[in-house]
Amino acid sequence: MGKIILSIAINVFLLMNTYVSGSISFTIVPETQYVYINDTVTFKCAINVTQFNPSFVTNPSDVGSELSSTGMASLTLTATSEVNGTEVTCKVSNGPTTEPAYLYVQGPPDSVSSFTGYQLDSCCMFISWYPPFTLPGLTVQYIISVGTDQQYLNDSITNYTYCPMNPTNKQYLFNITTTNKAGNGSTSNITVGFQSTIDVELYVTDKERGNVNWTFHFIVSVHQFCTNVPPLMNITLKGCTKDNCYSITNVSISNSSYNNISLVVQFPSNKTLNTNATLYYQNGVTAQSNTITI
Ligand SMILES: *[C@@H]1O[C@H](CO)[C@@H](O)[C@H](O)[C@H]1NC(C)=O
Ligand SMILES: *[C@@H]1O[C@H](CO)[C@@H](O)[C@H](O)[C@H]1NC(C)=O
Ligand SMILES: *[C@@H]1O[C@H](CO)[C@@H](O)[C@H](O)[C@H]1NC(C)=O
Ligand SMILES: *[C@@H]1O[C@H](CO)[C@@H](O)[C@H](O)[C@H]1NC(C)=O
Ligand SMILES: *[C@@H]1O[C@H](CO)[C@@H](O)[C@H](O)[C@H]1NC(C)=O
Ligand SMILES: *[C@@H]1O[C@H](CO)[C@@H](O)[C@H](O)[C@H]1NC(C)=O
Ligand SMILES: *[C@@H]1O[C@H](CO)[C@@H](O)[C@H](O)[C@H]1NC(C)=O
Ligand SMILES: *[C@@H]1O[C@H](CO)[C@@H](O)[C@H](O)[C@H]1NC(C)=O
Ligand SMILES: *[C@@H]1O[C@H](CO)[C@@H](O)[C@H](O)[C@H]1NC(C)=O
Ligand SMILES: *[C@@H]1O[C@H](CO)[C@@H](O)[C@H](O)[C@H]1NC(C)=O
Ligand SMILES: *[C@@H]1O[C@H](CO)[C@@H](O)[C@H](O)[C@H]1NC(C)=O
Ligand SMILES: *[C@@H]1O[C@H](CO)[C@@H](O)[C@H](O)[C@H]1NC(C)=O
């Protein structure tokens, strides 16, 4: 009887020894995972022998809940800041151990860096930035706010061209907020000075010199570079002799002749006049023409 037991024990020992010394291999090895905070993470492990149960070893220990069945094990845990960097290995009791895998947790993203901007052309501004560091395989989005406009951009994009509907000569404030599945990150801002360009040319097509007045036929030729231009409110023509200046404002401007505005103006002087035109737009932008001497 004693012999038999001993014999069985030796056989079991030999059997185990055989498996343990190299004939067990892992068919699934835990892999390093990069996840967002609060995500549920599962590490899996399996061996090619069903007689044994692999199990997980974590460092720091006691994280997550482990499920083990013959030849397989899984470790499930919730990603928190506390488990960030946890080392996970899978082992077979008295047998082989896997290389360690790690768990890394991503919170809301850092802010962008090198946020800069400038006026691109007479209609648009251009801003650019560098993405914040994020864990491999995870993404970040950008929320750009300027005035009441807001734009979400994916992380492959690191620049943005903004062409305001109502280009105004002022400082535009741009905010950029980083965001990901874990929430909004940090907001950075810059201001970009904007100066709209409108070319205005003043021509005289006809003139009549009276006893006390000049009567001029002007063409005001307007060239704007942007399609998003607000309505023109009025045109003021200013004429200066060497002694006096006269201002005449025309408020009835028909939109049909928007780019070539025809005006008839009388100045109460018949002396030589230096004349120019100022265009006033609804959004406060003003444009100044050349000065002509008549
Ligand atoms: C398990 O894998 C090892 C190494 O590849 C091999 O030597 C062994 O025979 C396999 N065992 C079974 C039961 O498939
Ligand atoms: C987790 O660790 C990584 C690497 O050290 C770090 O980049 C990341 O910000 C950490 N995450 C949290 C939520 O602390
Ligand atoms: C930009 O952020 C500041 C706070 O940092 C806020 O006061 C402002 O309203 C934001 N501007 C836009 C256009 O979102
Ligand atoms: C941003 O990326 C998501 C998925 O990564 C995609 O569904 C979406 O269409 C993208 N948005 C833009 C504006 O490219
Ligand atoms: C802006 O970003 C795009 C990719 O989204 C890139 O192709 C382009 O070169 C960038 N432009 C500048 C001026 O950096
Ligand atoms: C993560 O979960 C906790 C508890 O459920 C919650 O208070 C917290 O707001 C969550 N954080 C994120 C970034 O979703
Ligand atoms: C994230 O930031 C954007 C822009 O500031 C804001 O509109 C949005 O409501 C924020 N989302 C959360 C969940 O705070
Ligand atoms: C812009 O960001 C700076 C910090 O970089 C902050 O002090 C300032 O209040 C922000 N300005 C606005 C208008 O949000
Ligand atoms: C200009 O007006 C003065 C009177 O103000 C007049 O004497 C003179 O003849 C006028 N010149 C011409 C060219 O009409
Ligand atoms: C011309 O337009 C400007 C800008 O809207 C306004 O401030 C000004 O009062 C106007 N002038 C007249 C005479 O209507
Ligand atoms: C001269 O012009 C003014 C307005 O600019 C006008 O009131 C006046 O009647 C004109 N006089 C003559 C003689 O044309
Ligand atoms: C023409 O415009 C300039 C400013 O650009 C101004 O100083 C001048 O008084 C205007 N009028 C004349 C008649 O030159």
From TrEMBL:
Keywords: Signal. Gene3D superfamilies: Immunoglobulins. It comes from the Eukaryota. Residues 1-22 form the signal peptide. SUPFAM superfamilies: Fibronectin type III, Immunoglobulin. This is Fibronectin type-III domain-containing protein. It comes from Amphimedon queenslandica.
